[in-house]
Design brief:
281 residues; alpha/beta; Rossmann fold; Pantoate--beta-alanine Ligase, Chain: A,domain 2; 2 domains; 6-stranded parallel β-sheet; 39% helix
């Protein structure tokens, strides 16, 4: 496993690999790695000859300076975790390496970016598009791997691939959870012991919502989910939406065509957690 801090060094090794006809798998991360990230790396190793993991806390996707400042960072711990799986290259660039000049590009994702995360975190997805497009141009992977916990982000990246005609295959991987159902997230490390006890209720309530779909309208299910979570006292729902998988627009009738996904953001104290569940309708 090699660690690269500059684009030129990484690209030199990747060129040698491509010259041998090797396939490149890529897992972009912001560090603070956990078993969810490792599952992406393991999937990449199964399907490619070389695996690249980037660790870069991208400043342009944070609309809250405190969130950027407090985002957990521990390269030694991350490298230690990656040493337990097949990872060939770790790319750890500085901000100036990725952004030698300000990135002024503006992307238009239409209604995909005006709802849910896009509504509550203005500018977030433009920052995601900036860094993902840059990383793709640096690594030039055959396949790139993303977790479906960030469901809306994956939808944005799919749209970005189409807009820019990027020659990469995107691979979506299922959310990895703790035994108690909590979706793995780097932000889980910031939870207080008190909040950590209650946050598994989020997924439990989402599963109840899926069962409720038989007897209640989408609007009624939405109201019930928000009410249950907020009644716990330690949690506060920022949003819960039941949306069409492709358009991300709210579903008003279960009989509408297409897969429906329930997407949620919840504050546990100052820690913001997201999750989602697919409705079998």
């Amino acid at each position: 496993m090699e660690i690269f801090k500059t684009i030129s060094e990484l690209q030199q090794s990747l060129k040698a690999d491509r010259d041998k006809g090797l396939l490149i798998g890529f897992v972009p991360t912001m560090g603070a790695l956990h078993k969810g990230h490792l599952s992406l790396v393991e999937q990449a190793a199964k399907e490619n000859d070389r695996v690249v993991v980037s660790i870069f806390v991208n400043p342009t996707q944070f609309n809250d300076p405190n969130d950027l400042k407090n985002y957990p960072r521990n390269l030694d711990a991350d490298a230690g975790l990656l040493s337990t799986v097949v990872c060939d290259y770790i790319f750890v660039p500085s901000v100036t390496e990725i952004y030698p000049d300000s990135d002024t590009r503006e992307f238009d994702f239409g209604t995909l970016e005006t709802v849910m995360e896009g509504h509550f975190r203005p500018g977030h997805f433009n920052g995601v598009a900036q860094v993902v497009s840059k990383l793709f141009s640096i690594v030039m992977p055959d396949r790139a791997y993303f977790g479906l916990k960030d469901f809306q982000q994956y939808s944005i990246i799919k749209n970005l691939k189409e807009k820019l005609h990027l020659p990469v295959n995107l691979v979506a991987c299922e959310t990895v959870r703790e035994d108690d159902g909590l979706a793995l997230s780097s932000r889980n490390k910031l939870l207080t012991p008190e909040h950590r006890i209650v946050v598994p209720q989020i997924y439990r309530i989402l599963k109840e919502a899926r069962a409720d779909a038989t007897n209640f309208t989408p609007h009624e299910v939405k109201t019930r989910v928000i009410g249950k979570i907020d009644s716990l006292g330690l949690l506060k729902t920022e949003y819960f939406e039941i949306v069409d998988e492709l358009t991300l627009q709210s579903v008003t009738d279960w009989n509408q065509k297409g897969t429906k996904v329930g997407c949620i953001a919840v504050f546990a104290g100052s820690v913001r957690l997201i999750d989602n569940i697919v409705f079998d309708k």
